[in-house]
Design a protein that fits this description.
2 domains, Rossmann fold, 12 strands, alpha/beta, six-stranded parallel β-sheet, 37% helix, elongated
């Protein structure tokens, strides 16, 4: 432990990453912060399109502030004209602590330090100059994203023991799902998610079709999930399967997707946002890693969630699918 922190009233968190998984992976750290400082006002600085997701976690975050981009950050074009007002507004809050929770810090350390909090903590690129040895740790590329930020908090004396992600489902989410469920006659179903936010992370469609065919022959309803943009992909894969399937890609809000996932027996997916959602909801999953690092992004519970690394064959996936289904049936029994 170095430079222990206490008596915080105003905390800023900087994480301007776009993905659902990117956000869910910091929930354990946010929960630890709230437990340590229940009365503190916690401000989350992120991308504008993250606001709805962030607001779902009002028990941990009091305020969302959209970042108008920042030079060098690829996730959003920087609105240079808006930056002076943004920083003036942030500095006027007089944060006691600012936490850089966005990558190695090459770009985000100058951004976070510009908030001029009383103290700033985060990571710095290994091999480069450390901004402050009492407050910054070397960034380890292969460290798990959940454990990374818990380690940072523990480094400054903030207890961080729970590693579970979570995702609250509201009554309106369940009502939306119920309507879909009745419309499609959902009963005994598994979800397959063949898309990904990054195309290089996608397993081949014909292999997903083979997995779907096998599960359909076992008597499971097959539900395809995805975004509106992925609906064509899911339709093309569904055509390869003899049995009828249910295509809900682009047909659910995030909350209804969570309710759908909560009711399924199993998820098979690429490493993308829905795999983290399944982990947060404790829904068994088989996650196929094609273009990402399982050390950093795989579910930590490797009993309930199985990670398949390249080269990933259909038989590899089906072996884990059947193992999980047998495991779950034993739990039910």
């Amino acid at each position: 432990m170095s430079g222990a922190i206490s008596n915080l009233e105003k905390i800023a968190i900087v994480r301007a990453l776009p993905g659902l998984g990117d956000f869910l992976c910091v929930i354990p750290a946010l929960r630890a912060l709230r437990a340590a400082f229940p009365q503190a006002k916690i401000t989350f600085v992120g991308l504008p399109n993250s606001q709805g997701l962030v607001e779902r976690f009002a028990q941990y975050i009091d305020e969302f502030v959209p970042l108008p981009g920042y030079p060098g950050l690829p996730e959003q074009t920087a609105n240079l004209a808006a930056l002076p007002d943004f920083f003036e507004q942030m500095r006027s809050r007089k944060f006691d602590l600012a936490i850089q929770m966005h990558g190695s810090g090459v770009i985000t350390n100058p951004l976070t330090l510009s908030l001029e909090a009383t103290r700033t903590i985060g990571f710095f690129p290994a091999g480069q100059a450390c901004p402050d040895s009492e407050s910054f740790l070397p960034f380890v590329e292969t460290e798990h994203e959940i454990l990374r930020y818990l380690r940072l908090l523990e480094f400054v004396g903030i207890p961080a023991s729970e590693i579970d992600m979570e995702f609250p489902i509201a009554m309106c989410d369940r009502q939306e799902f119920q309507t879909l469920s009745q419309l499609h006659g959902l009963n005994r179903y598994v979800c397959i998610h063949a898309g990904a936010s990054v195309p290089s992370r996608c397993w081949s469609g014909d292999r997903f079709a083979a997995v779907g065919e096998h599960l359909a022959q076992m008597g499971w309803q097959i539900v395809w999930t995805g975004t509106c943009a992925e609906r064509g992909l899911t339709e093309s894969i569904a055509r390869l399967i003899k049995a009828p399937t249910i295509n809900l890609a682009g047909r659910t809000s995030l909350g209804a997707l969570a309710a759908l996932l909560e009711g399924c027996k199993l998820l098979v997916s690429n490493d993308t946002g829905i795999s983290h959602l399944a982990a947060a909801l404790k829904v068994p999953s088989v996650v196929i890693f094609s273009g990402s690092d399982p050390k950093r992004w795989s579910p930590l519970d490797q009993q309930r969630h199985r990670s398949i690394v390249p080269p990933a064959s259909v038989s590899d996936v089906l072996e884990q699918v059947e193992s999980l289904l047998q495991q779950e049936s034993r739990y039910v029994a």
